[in-house]
Structures are given as C-alpha cells and as structure tokens.
Amino acid sequence: SIDPVARNIAIITTTLTALMVLEYIWYLSDEIRLVWPRVWKTTEAKIYVVTRYAGLAGQSFNIWFAFRMVSGVPNSQFACRVWSSYQAATIQCLLLSVALLLVLRVYKMYRKGKSIFALSIIFCGAQSAAMAVNVRLIVTGSRYSPTCVIISPHHSRIYVGISIIALFMFILVTMLWRFFRSTSSWSEAPHAWLKLAVRDGTYTAIAITVIFIFMFLCITRVIDTQMSGNIIFYVLLSCLWFAAGRIVLHQEKFRKIQESQKGDVNDPSRWTQTIEVDFDDIRPFDDPDVCPTSSSGSEVESTEVSTSSEFMSDAGTRDIADEHLCEWDDNTLSSSCAPTFMLVERCISGEGSDTRK
C-alpha cells in the first residue's frame, strides 16, 4: 500500500513545482529584459540568476525523490541522512540569499553606515552558526522510515527556526524604523523605493515566520501531524525561491520606471545643468587675449556647470537607491554626493566667440 505521508509529499511537491514553473514562464520576458543585462554589474542580479535556476534544478530533484518515496523503494538510514543533509544545505543557501538581498536594502537605507553593516553581519553569522551547530542533531536525531519519510523530527529544529526568525525580524524592524522616521522633505523617487523595499521585506518576513511557527506547533505536539517534519522543506524552499525572484524583479522594474521618467542616465546632456545669467549684469574679462575688444561690441555669457565625478563614472550601473542616498540624511551631505561647480564664461562678439573656464 502507498504511504499516505509519502503520497501527500508527492502531491505538495508537484503542486509547488507547477507554481514555480508558471512563475518562471510568466516573468521570463522581464528577466531577460531587466536582469540579464545587469548580471555582471550588480550583486542582486547574480543572486537572482543563481537562486532562480539552482532552485528549479533542485525542485526537479525533489519531485524525483518524492515519487521514489511513493513507489516504496527502500533506502538505507545513511541515504536518508544524506537526503536530510541536502535539505538543510539547500534551505541555508536560499535563506542567506534572500537575507543578503534584504540586507543590501537595509544597508542603502542607512546610507551604507558601518554600524548597520556590522549588525547585519552579526545576525547573519549567528543564524549560520545556529544552523551549523544543530544540523548534525537534526540529521542524526530524526527517525526515518525505509522510504526516508521522517517519522519523528528532532527538537533542534526549534533552535534553528528561532535563529531564522530573529534574523528576518531584525531586517524587518530596521526597515520599518527607517520608513517611519522618513521625513516629508524626501523626494518622490527615494520614498517610493523605500516603500517598495519595506513591502518586500515585510511579506518575506511574515511568510517565513508563519512557516516556522507552524513547525514549532507541530514539534511541540500542539498540532499533532506527521506532515510537519516532511513538508516544511518543500514549502520553505518554494517560499524562498519566490521571495528572491520577486525582490530582484520588483527592484529592477522600479529602476526601469525611474529611468523612463528621467530619461536615459547615460545621456551626457543630463550630467550638467545650465544656469541662465543676466547679460546686463556681466562685466567683461580684463584679459584682452581671451576676450579681445571689438568695435562691434561684446558680451560675456557665464554658465555654471554642476557635475559629480562619481555619478558620471558609474552612470548606467548605479542602483536607484545609490542615486538618492544624499537625500536620506537631513543633517549631513557626503563628499561623494556634493556637486562640483565650474564657471564657464564665454565671450560673444560680433565676429565670433571664445570660451574661458
């Protein structure tokens, strides 16, 4: 007879895989248009590509193993432990990928401050350490059926779950703290980017927290079901896969919309601003070689040009948040954001014109 738990695992895995394939097909055109051109330019695009295709490949393997369980093919205890180790490694890689995507948002929200970077490293390191310490107990302490269905999960899963929830709660709290401390003086673009980042972070943190709370209730026998130890991996893998893809795609769509509204950031004409000057209040140069005296009369046009060397060097590759970091602090302005002004004066005469900087 077919093991009902193995049958449910196969049904859930097949359903989640179908949803992942539909998601992939639905957003494939956006991926090609928005992500692939930036895959060598941004960390987010690299994470997207790795998690996207490694996740699909891993899920294909999960389906094969799930139907192997349904067919009743026996496995050794060692094979079941290897399978459980694979699950732990896969989840940890996806967790760190999603956490890194959100931490990068937090890092930019706080103007790339060293303190927030250090706190993020501490929380990510603590979560990784908790997984490394408890994974051996989780793998060896659980009891398996001959088909590798988990009969009794080890309670060490609770400690791993707590560390994961703590990491994502830290990310969520830092995002909300920055969001609610925002001022009305912010321009529309950075404020919209902040709302998008907070929305993605909130949805991800809530989804992960709900999954692990359900796992806690099952391990502590508040909810008595054998399915918890077997389906958490499949559900969490799909959840993290969806989260990683949506976070990056939402970011790239927002960047594209901003570029379409502002025009091409690579257009050199947008790197300067010309300030009109009253011609009646201009005094000519004293240097006759630059502005020679002419009987036909002459005028001097003064133009002030504002440039940012950092922006010009990174044009086309900068994140929308990087472009507006200067607006996110009411009291300070970093030197990299400060514009450089250069006075350009042009002498206009009846015979021609000359320019002096």
UniProtKB/TrEMBL annotation:
InterPro entries xrefs: DUF6533
Region of interest (Disordered), ranges: 290-312
Domain of life: Eukaryota
Start and end residues of each DUF6533 domain: 17-57
Compositional bias ranges of the Low complexity kind: 293-310
UniProt keywords, alphabetically: Membrane, Transmembrane, Transmembrane helix
Transmembrane segments: 6-26, 47-66, 86-104, 116-138, 158-180, 201-223, 229-249
Pfam family, one: DUF6533
The protein's name in its UniProt record: DUF6533 domain-containing protein
